[in-house]
Amino acid sequence: MKITVVIPYYQREAGLLKRAVASIIAQSLSEQWLVEIIVVDDGSPSPARDERFDALPDQISIRIVEQENGGVGAARNAGISAADPATAYLAFLDSDDEWGPSHLQSAVAQLDAGADFYFDNNIIDEGRDAFSYSAYMQVKHGKLDLDRPFVGIMDGQEGFEAILHECLPHTSQVVYNFQRHSAVRFETHMRRAGEDQIFWLTLAHRSHRIAYSTAVNGNRGIGISIYRESLAWDSPNGLSRVADEILMRTTIRRKFDLTAGQKRLLQQDAQRVCDHFAFLAVRNARKQPRQLSEALSRLTRESPGFWLMVPASLLRLPAYVRKLRREAELQQ
Fold first, then answer.
1. CA angle 29, 17, 197 (to 5 degrees)
2. Is the confidence at residue 226, as pLDDT, over 60?
3. pLDDT for the residue numbered 254
4. 300 and 243 share a domain?
């Protein structure tokens, strides 16, 4: 039985990929499983072929695929397409992230029991776990006791509803049944945000059973993060990221047959994101005219409803700025 691990790679610092691969080697997995690691070098400044890995056990192999830079979605798609068609389960791991030693073992147990896809918890910010930020987890389970982890099960409809409103799985913690979902691919027109959430929505939409574990089985790294580096208000890529978040919601409306309630909540989410886009546009118009022009061109071309949201966002802009300032003060 084979597990394929897809690692998109774009880093400036050597050694991060070696740590990620070492965490795969350290997995507590039965010898009946073969693991193939496919590293997709997406035009990385620090080439993947220059990395030196620890000795691989017999059941683990590694293959490097090189391509011109196309973004993380295109890199993951290249890895999926390169996977052996006989692959039972496919997992993702970002090149600067690491797995806990029982991640694959936990995933295999749930997938063998009939889950279509699986994800577990990880550490993301100064020791805080990802699930502690999740509205779904808070409503469903309250405050989690990380010393007493458990496995939760939801059907595809519940999973779709949960993921519609937040990107509940972190990419590096996802493993799914490749035989059932080998045709699913990432959207490539969004390069800074949203492509992963649509992938999980597609899996959920096609799934009967989704499993998740509150156990912390991963650690998010500190290498290049296309998403994180665009979060600052003055980031030159901030407008592009927020445009992607608006386009993500346009893509969701196009791809899925949503209920009236889901459409309404998605529109509210899109309006909230448009408020932030208006803030960034006004803040950075003089410093980043090219980035603003490119983002507006994309939104005009790919999200026809964008301009209908703009008047309301501009009217709310003073109140939105006050809100952001209060939040910033509280964080200091």
1. 80
2. no
3. 93
4. yes
Indicate the pLDDT class of residue 332, thresholds 50, 70 and 90: low
Cβ-contact 73, 191 below 8 angstroms: yes
Residue 211 shares a structural domain with residue 291? no
DSSP state letter for 301: H
Percent of the chain with pLDDT over 90: 75
* Closest to 188 in 3D by CA, of 49, 80, 48, 309: 80
CA 231 centroid distance within chain: 15
Domain count, the chain: 2
Query: From CA 249, how far away is CA 258, in angstroms rounded?
Result: 12
Residues in the chain: 332
Residue at a domain's end among 219, 246, 279: 219
Residue 91 structural domain: 2-219
Helices and strands, number each (H, E), in the chain: 12, 10
Give the pair of three-digit tokens for residue 10. Answer: 């774009």
Domain boundary among 219, 239, 263: 219
| Spatial separation of the C-alpha atoms in residues 120 and 136, rounded to whole Å | 14
Torsion sign (Cα): 219, 224, 227, 229: positive
Assessment of whether the complete model's pTM goes beyond 0.85: yes
Q: Is residue 270 domain-shared with residue 165, that is, in the same domain?
A: no
CATH (domain of 209): 3.90.550.10
Give residue 236's pLDDT: 79
For 262-290, how does the pLDDT look when each residue is reduced to its tens digit (9 = 90+)?
999 999 999 999 999 999 999 889 999 99
Name 226's Cβ contacts closer than 8 Å, sequence gap at least 6: 10, 71, 72, 191, 192, 237
Q: Which two tokens stand for residue 80?
A: 């999926």
pLDDT of residue 178: 98
Q: Which residues pair with 35 in a beta bridge?
A: 3, 60
Are 151 and 262 part of one and the same domain?
no
Burial class (CB in 10 A: 0-12, 13-18, 19+), 299: buried
pLDDT (mean) for 93-107: 95
Are residues 213 and 236 part of one domain?
A: no
